[in-house]
């Protein structure tokens, strides 16, 4: 049967060319070939949002009470944002095999206890934010493996102490915030490994300006000397130092520390002042004989109570404080300063009085000399009359 054709003058559709039937399969083939060449789309853990290049994974503000599936995290991600959620706890392997991450934001959650070695696999992490959580304690190995960390934000938590060793591996750290916690005092040895630290925030803490901060005060002065920045550390205790910045308080003004040592007999156990000078004792080797050196500049030892501690972080700090800061020596220093001030005051008063007397005497002598010069001609005439009278008397006698 011949194909149906329209007459030349008809109004029906034009005849379909045979080439159009060949173009469509070729076009579909090219599209399929290009799709095969493109890399498959990487998954993004729900309910997070991933950037177009999959470098930033934003899981913030999603009301999460547990972590999203980390195995779905795109390979090569640089930033993981988990802020403004309801995270209260994390497993020890929560961030395992995430060595590509450079930023981790866990701020504004309810985290109250982080396991040791939580960030062990994050060797490239440079920024860690734990702002506004419920952290009250930190395990010594919490930041283990963070060799590249440069920024650490621990502000607005409930930390009452920074344990020795927790910051030892953060030798590249440049910015640290401990503001808005419950810190009363800090130990110098906990911060000495931070050789590259340039900015330290310590404000809004209930600081007690006694022996707890004496050594740390010296370390802050060293940090400022090498160009670092530290915000104001205002004292809350004792009352006579309340509101003052500890950096401007002289060493002799730590009266509250002296009172504590007096109450404990200068060597009783349980003194709170022992926390301040403990770090030097922990860094130095314990004296095998158990005796405590008297010199403040020598490596301090420990007595029998510190020997039981063994590691330099237990019972050793109170012994170091008792060895280094003795009320008698400090009283003598204060007495010497007072006596020297009184003597200097008396000497100054005497010098002022002597200067005033010299000025008055000089002015009187100058006035006397002027009057003497004015009267000198008259005195000369009087002397001549006297000589004539004497000559006359001699001639009359003769």
From TrEMBL:
Residues 205-258 form the LRRCT domain. InterPro entries: Cys-rich_flank_reg_C, Leu-rich_rpt, Leu-rich_rpt_typical-subtyp, LRR_dom_sf. It is a single-pass membrane protein. Pfam families: LRR_1 (PF00560), LRR_8 (PF13855). It comes from the Eukaryota. Residues 389-398 have a biased composition (Basic and acidic residues). The keyword Signal applies. Residues 265-277 have a biased composition (Gly residues). Residues 295-307 have a biased composition (Low complexity). The keyword Mitochondrion does not apply. GO terms for biological process: potassium ion transmembrane transport. SUPFAM superfamilies: L domain-like. The chain crosses the membrane at residues 333-366. Residues 265-318, 376-398 are annotated as: Disordered. Its main location: membrane. Residues 1-43 form the signal peptide. Residues 284-294 have a biased composition (Polar residues). It is found in: Cell membrane. This is (Atlantic silverside) hypothetical protein. It comes from Menidia menidia (Atlantic silverside).
